[in-house]
Amino acid sequence: MASIIPLDPAKRKASSALDDLAALVQEDLLAVNDVILSRMQSPVALIPQLAGHLIAAGGKRLRPILTLASARLCEYGGIRHRKLSACVEFIHTATLLHDDVVDESRLRRGNPSANALFGNKATVLVGDFLFSRAFQLMVEDGSLDVLRILSNASAVIAEGEVLQLTTSNNVRTSEQAYLEVIRAKTAELFAAACRIGAVVAARPAPEEEALRTFGLNLGLAFQIIDDVLDYSAEQARLGKSIGDDFREGKITLPVILAYNRGNEAERHFWRRTLEDLDHRRDDLEKAMSYLRRTEALKDAAERARHYGAIARDALGLFPSHPVKDVLLSVVDFTLEREY
């Protein structure tokens, strides 16, 4: 049976870190939600219906919360960060819609994906609509620096999607190639979300860079742990079926480590299941046994802890602050989460 991989237990309350962070920026977050709801409206009924399906499905609003928290850490007293946080969430939501079409996913956070309900064409086009809304919000903000940061992040995300196609179903993918994919697809938006908090507050370049570094490495740790959880957590805690990545033939860090450390029989197994997508009964359990034998899950989690340590160090530039304390706890949550 699947097991929970024990990660760093240093902070017993890490699982509440996101709630604590959301509470610190509650007023701003409510305003962000209002912006999201108003800007996803359209006279074309299918657009708010499909976009609302994904947004209503849950999600932690982690990226916009990071923007709000970064601005608060930088002592920003205005309201520009609210629209920009909504912009970040629209970019993220658009990429989720496109991801599910490319991956042919049928579930998203344990619920039917948008493409499963509405079809691929509508899902791609609504994703495009949300990207357009994001750019409208950037233009309304009026800052060329903000436009540069978020438009660059959007371009890098798209590059990451294409790069992932080159590694898809290829068990010989290197760890470096995997890291390049998750840096582009996940970590760059984390970095941008944190960085613009410093930009709107007009903080000096070292603080802007520190928040970018924090977000980037938090994003890397977040994605690696997400890939570990696909082989190690219970469905109720993870919010999706265990083994989705396995069934779709995704090449993630645990698989890369297990393949490189496996014997020839095990390597043949990974080629059959992930390259040829030839799945047989009990293959998922067999995959998990190989991951355990090679300590691939344990060592992938250790890689995540490395990036988490860099993220923590990046905040050392900032003085003591309630937001800083909770952001450090978010790093612990990322490393210890079971869902």
Overview of the structural elements:
The protein is 73% helix and 1% strand. The protein has one domain: Orthogonal Bundle (Farnesyl Diphosphate Synthase), CATH 1.10.600.10. Strands 1-2 form a two-stranded antiparallel ribbon. The chain is mainly α and 339 residues long.
List the topology elements.
Layout: H1 17-24, H2 26-39, H3 46-56, H4 62-73, H5 80-103, E1 107-108, E2 111-112, H6 114-118, H7 120-141, H8 144-167, H9 175-200, H10 205-229, H11 235-238, H12 244-248, H13 253-261, H14 264-275, H15 283-293, H16 296-314, H17 322-336
Antiparallel strand pairs: 1-2
Short description:
The protein is globular. The chain has one domain (14-332): Orthogonal Bundle (Farnesyl Diphosphate Synthase). 73% of the residues lie in helices and 1% in strands.
Number of domains: 1
* Number of extended strands: 2
Q: Give the proportion of residues in helices.
A: over 70%
Could you tell me how far the N terminus lies from the C terminus, measured between alpha carbons in angstroms? 17 Å
How does the major sheet shape up? 2 strands, antiparallel
CATH superfamily heading: Farnesyl Diphosphate Synthase
> Which structural class best describes the helix and strand composition?
mainly alpha
Spatial strand sequence of the major β-sheet: 1-2
